Amino acid sequence: MDDPILAAIAVALSTRAVEGMADAGKAAFASLVRLVRRKAGDHSGLRTSIEAEPASLTSDDRAVALRRALVDAAAQDPLFDQELRRRWEIFQQTTLRADTVTNTVSGRVTGPVVQARDIFGGVNLVPPPQQRHEP
User: Fold this and answer.
1) Mean pLDDT on 80-102
2) What is the largest CA-CA distance in the chain?
């Protein structure tokens, strides 16, 4: 069974993908990690996957091993599966919200408007030819 949610969780856990994340995202990820570590206490496959030396496996191999262990642990314990998915959803919502940009323009606008998030380089606003006022 190839569950995309468990695969995503395994990749996030194996790469420790929290650098540059907002505090809310880090807290949600930490909650997910605590749940998995707690479950690893009574699931040897999950414990082995978590405790594997990072240097002994590639990032992909580690993610595959974690995914397999998560699939097994979730199949054996439906309450763990439900809580894991709930916490993943919270993590996803937190990181999506932290990465979302909302632009609003209100009132009367008489010139160009630029709405952007990250701009690398310059921005040059030149009116269209029909609006240029040549002396």
Assistant:
1) 79
2) 81
